[in-house]
Amino acid sequence: MTRALPSMTGLLITAVALTQALASVSAADASAHTQVQKALDRAVADGGAPGMVAEVRDRRGRWFGSAGVADTRTGRKRQPHERFRIGSAAKPFTATVVLQLAAEGRLSLDDTVQKWLPGLVKGNGNDGGTITIRHLLNHTSGIFNYGNDKEEFAKLSGPAWLEHRYDTYTPEQLVKIGLRNPRSFEAPGDGFVYSNTGYILAGMIVEKITGRTLAGEIQRRIVRPLGLTGTYLPGRETKIRGPHPRHYSTLFATEADAKVYDVTDQSATTGWAAGGMVSTLGDLHRFTGALLRGKLLPPAQQREMFTLVKTGIRTPDGTWRDTWISDTMYGTGVFSWELSCGVKVWGIGGAITGGFSFAMGSRDAERMIATNVTIDRYGRHNSLDLSKTVLEAEFCPSGS
C-alpha cells in the first residue's frame, strides 16, 4: 500500500505552525531566566554534562534554555522537542493508572498484593498478604529494590553494563530478584525505602485487572487524553523513536576523570513500570501540570496521590535516617522537595543510566520547570546536584 504525499499547502501550514510554536517558546521574558541559563552553562562547563536543557512555563509564557550538545560526536545542539529516557519519572504514570482503577472501583489501595498476585510475594520476611497496593506506591512496603541486588548491580554497572545493555527481563524476573534479598525494614508501613520492585508489582496488578498491557493503559488513559506526542513505554525496543539526544554515563564510576560511554541504546525492560519510559520536556510539563491541577483523578484519588510520607526510616537507636533525597516527602509517584532557600516545589523526577529528568513546580502549577541532563554522574559532579541547581535557579530568589 502506498502512502499519499502531503500537499505543498499542508507543508506550508506545518512550517508556519512550527515557527509560531518556536516563537511562543521564546516569548517569555528571557531576562527573567538568566539564572537558569547560567546554571545550565555551569553544568556543562564545570559539571561534566554533555548537554542540559530546561523549559520554564509561567504566566509570561514559555522559555527554553540549553547548554552543551545533544551529540558529542557531531556537536548537534539540543532542541525543545527531543525525546529522552525519563527513568523513575515513569512511576507517576503507573501510579495514575492504578489510582484511576481505584476510582472505577476495580481495586482498592488497601487491597493486598496477595489478592491480585497470589503466591508471588513471599520469602525473606515478605508476605504478600500484609503488603498493600498503597505500600507499593509510596515505597513503604519494605520490599528490597531489585536494582540494588549485588549480582544484578555487578551486571548493570561498570564495563559489564556494555555486555548486558540489551538483556531483557520479565516483570516476574525483576520481582524475584528483589525478593531474594532481605527486607529493608520489618513491617510494611514502618518506613520508606525507595523500591522499584514495588512499582513492578503495581504494573503487574494493572495488567492482571485490565487484561491489557501497562503500555496500552498508559496510552489510553494518559497519553491520548493529554495529547502527549513524544511519550511512550517501550517494550523490547532498544532505540529511542524519533529525534533524541545521545545519552551518556560513567557507569557508576565516581572519579572526576572517569570514562564516559554512550549508553543511548539499551533495554527498557530493566525499568518497565518503575523507570522504562521515554518522554519530552513539553510532555512532562503537560503531564505534571495535569497531576498538580487534579485533571487526571477524582478528588479522593487526588488526595491519595498527594498524601505524603517522610522519605526515611527510624533506626533502632531512635535516630532518623534519610533513605532518599534529603528534604523530600513522597506521595504516590509524586513528591515535594524543599529547596535550600526554603521554597517547596512539587512534581516528578527520575534517573536512569544515561540521564536525570525532573518536572517540578508550584503546587498550583502556575510556575513550572522541566529539565533533563543527558548523563548520570554520582561523584563530585553529581547529576542530582546539577538538576537541583537548575531548579533553585528558577525558584530561589537571586542570592539566597
TrEMBL record:
One matching Pfam family: Beta-lactamase
| Any one GO molecular function term | serine-type D-Ala-D-Ala carboxypeptidase activity
Identify the stretch annotated as signal peptide in this record.
Answer: 1-23
Q: Which InterPro entries match?
A: AmpC-like, Beta-lactam-related, Beta-lactam/transpept-like
Name the top EC class: hydrolase
Keyword terms, alphabetized:
Carboxypeptidase, Hydrolase, Protease, Signal
| EC numbers for this chain | 3.4.16.4
Q: Which residues form the Beta-lactamase-related domain?
A: 37-362
Which SUPFAM superfamilies does this one have? Answer: beta-lactamase/transpeptidase-like
| Name used for this protein in its record | D-alanyl-D-alanine carboxypeptidase
What is the scientific name of the source organism?
A: Nonomuraea rubra
